[in-house]
Structures are given as structure tokens and as C-alpha cells.
Amino acid sequence: MSLAVLVLQIPYLIYWQVAHWGERLSDLMTVPFLRSAVKLAAGAISACSYGIYKLLKWPMLWLSRRRVFFSDRTAAEITGNPNGLTRAMGKIAIDTAICIEQEKQTSYFLESFDLLLPVSPLQAVTLGSAAQHSSLEPILQWDLANPLRNWLTVNSTHPLLGERLKLLALYAQFWKLETELDLASLSEPEASNKGKLSFFKSILKLQKSKLFLQGAPFLGIPMSLAIVGVLWSIGAILSRTSIWQFDWLLGDRSILWGCLPIGFSLGTLARINYFFPDIPARQVAPPSLPEILSNPETLPLDAKPVKLEGKLLGRSGISNWLGQDLILQTDSGLVRLHYVSRFGPIGSWWPVPVRPIDLLGKSVTATGWLRRGAIVAIDLETLRAPGGKTSNSGHPIWSAILAFAAAFWGAYTIVQGGR
Question: Rounded to two decimals, what is the model's pTM?
Fold first, then answer.
């Protein structure tokens, strides 16, 4: 993991330093054209480097999550004090949230070295801030009782904090120590009463929990393979009859490569209305962060349209052109914001009237879809400041564009044909 983090520092330092020096150099320019050219070039290099950092980081996520479990166990064995590690992780989460509030952004160090940190900064942002207003046990209920929690951590650097603290509590019980937190009552009932669910019951449970709709874009790919198998079978049958005009279906690879993106497209379109429900003009009072965190049945699919008021935190300048670090500071805690330009990634570089970074440090109203997964985040629709400045996001638009582009590509591949 140390070697992996060392490699990841190269693209991350390029992202960070190019953004920093691009801002300073553009401030020295007196010619508007040169100032814009420097910012555009620095923004392009910085954004590409950040994308490479994310791409190289993804293969290490599974190993990082496994490493954390082993490190927790080793620490408990060496110290003989799992309760001490439990207290330490709770304090780290709280202090990480406090650090972000004080610095008004996520530290570059926290993001670049998150694979080696004891607690993930992405988890600590919300959990740590909510823990300042509530005890840990209720806000960890989702981590312990949600039936799909393991599926929803595939893009996380760390396991869920609740699962880690539950294991530490089991270590303490094994050594006949009084546990720091009472987490036994928050576990999934089936795990204690019936052991592991059978495969058939697991499938039924996944259906009940709307997993198939949650992962529809990706589940559409294997479903499309079934369609390919049917078409190839039809071609094989017809090739043995007088209807030879359709025997080309047998083994035609263009059908295979074309149906894969079409399946992804159909899955994306199947869930898009449920994923982005209409936002009513009148909003009811949104739940507090402790209430959101303590609901064990919530999935990212169950998006709640919200309108939250708070102070916008995040990095300034070129380093945040893509919305890498946008955080809403509310009365009940911190919530991360996901922003996508209505003009796509290029729109983050193109001159627009209002960017999210133009509203940093101001009181804003965030309208969008609140999602509860491994982390809590809001997919933005709009960010509005009191003076009338509004920054628009385009999550539903680009989901639809991606779906139609995949369908077009699949259709084009099939039309081209080939074996």
C-alpha cells in the first residue's frame, strides 16, 4: 500500500501544483487573453492529472479495505485494548470534520494519503460532524444493518466505520472486557438468528432491497448477453432450415459488442426517473444528518429531493474546477456535494456565468437529491446564493446523454456487422 500511495503522489502532485502555480501565474498576467489561456491550460493539465490519480487509485480500493481489517486486528492484538482503538477512531472522525470546518476545505494531504489513513476522510466528513450532535451508536446503524452495505462500498478506500467498530467490540467481548459501544443490538437480525442466508433467500432479499434497480446499468450488460445467446440460437436454428437469410446471426460478433452498450443504455434509462425524482416547489423540512445516518433501509436509489441551506466550503480556483471538493456546512453537520456541469467535463473549463467555486464561503441554498450510501452526498441540481447568483448542475441530463450515446454506439456496431 505504501508503494501504491507513492505512485499515486505523482499525478496528484501534478494536479495540485499545476493548479496552484497556474492561479499565481494568471494573477501576474495583465493581458486578459493570456490570463485566460494560462488558466485554461493549467485547468486542462490539472484535471487530466486528477483523473489519472483517480484511475490509478481504483484498483487499490479492494486491497485497501482488506488491509484496514488486518490493521485493526493487529492493533488490538499488540495493545490488548480494542476499546482504545474504538475511542481513537471516533475522535479521528470528529477531528477530521472539525479540521475541514476550520480550514474550509479538504486538506490536500487528507485526500492524497487517504489509502493509508486510519479513517477515510470521505466517511469522516459526515459521520464526524454528526457525532458532535449525537452519540455514535444510532448514526452507525446503517453501517451495521443495511443488507447491501458490502455492495455499496466497492468504490470506498475503507470499510464502513460501523463494521470496524463492531469487530473491535467482538474482540473486547472475547477478552471478557466491557465494550466501549453497544453495537450488538444494531446488527442485521438474520446474521445472529439464522446465520448466512441461502443463495435463494439472498436473491429474494436483493430484489426486496431494489438492488436490481440500483445496479440496472451494470446488470443490463449480462442481460444483454442473454439476448445475444438467443439471437445466436435463432441463427443456428434457421441455418438448418430453408430460411437461410438469417443464418448470419449465428456467431456474429457485432451483435455481441453492440448489445453490451445497448444493455447498459436500457438499464440506465430504466432507473433514471426513479434515480432523479421531481423536486417539488415546496420542500418539507429535511431530516437532520443523525436521522439520515440512522435509517438502515435507505439506498442511494432512494433519493430524497431536498433543499438545504448552509455555508459552502471547498477548494478555490483551478484545483476545484471539476467540483472535486464541495461541502455544505449545515446546522446539523457537513454534507458532500456532487456537481456536474450541464455542458459535461468540458463545461467545467468553458466560461460560464457562475461556477460553484464562485460561491465559496457564502451562505447558499443547495437543491438536489440526497443519497445515502457508503457516504452521504447530494447530487446537485442548483446552488443559489442570496444575491441571485445560481450555479446549475446537470446530473439527470448527462445520465440521459450517456444512455443514448451508448445505445447509438451499440446500434452502429451492429449495423457495421462483422465476424
Answer: 0.84
